[in-house]
Amino acid sequence: MRTVIYPGSFDPLTNGHLDVIQRAARLFDRVVVAVARNESKQPLFSPAERKTLIEQSTTDLPNVSVDLFEGLLVEYVEQQSGHAVIRGLRALSDFENEFQMALMNRQLNEHIETLFMMPRASYSFLSSHLVKEISGLGGDVSPFVTPEVKEALAAKLGQACVN
Ligand code: ADP
User: Fold this and answer.
1) Is 128 a catalytic residue?
2) 83 lines ligand 1 (CB under 6 A)
């Protein structure tokens, strides 16, 4: 049973995250999407809300589960009997930070590998931050998020759902 952990803030889940989850679900027996609780940034959605949105958006993927985690990622991966961590790579700008984090995690536990996956090219510009900004300004985010996330964004940002 090969288990991979996909950690992140997911505030909220975008189609870019979902693309990575779908690709990972084809490669591994079990994918655990791990929503980080220990946020230094002020998230729009609570950890529980973020978890529920991912669950609602991945009902068609039976080997994907969603969990909350806090503390050291490498410890969480061990608790889950995970073999690897998946991170998404968009543009070159992601690289530096991800490279540092991957090597630091290897220093902390050399048995846990970090794998990078690229989303479909059309999602490579997508970020949770941009999606929140567009939604907050009344733009239509349907091409970027699932219907569940779109509705949650509209509710949270106090708008009528566009389209
Ligand atoms: P974090 O705050 O931990 O970076 P995010 O929720 O922003 O969490 O992202 C989680 C992971 O998903 C990161 O590896 C990030 O690079 C990746 N990611 C974010 N947006 C996309 C996207 N559009 N396509 C592919 N990967 C993405």
Assistant:
1) yes
2) no
The β-bridge partners of 116 are: 87
pLDDT digits (tens, 9 = 90+) for 68-122: 999 999 999 999 999 999 999 998 788 999 999 999 999 999 999 999 999 999 9
In Å, how far from its chain's centre is CA 45? 13
Known catalytic membership, residue 17: yes
Measured from the CB, is residue 151 less than 6 Å from ligand 1?
Answer: no
Architecture of domain 3-124: 3-Layer(aba) Sandwich (3.40)
pLDDT at 7 over 60: yes
Q: Could you tell me the residue ranges of all domains in the chain?
A: 3-124
Catalytic residue among 17, 30, 50, 132: 17
- The rounded Cα 29 to chain-centroid distance in angstroms is 18
d(CA 159, CA 31): 34
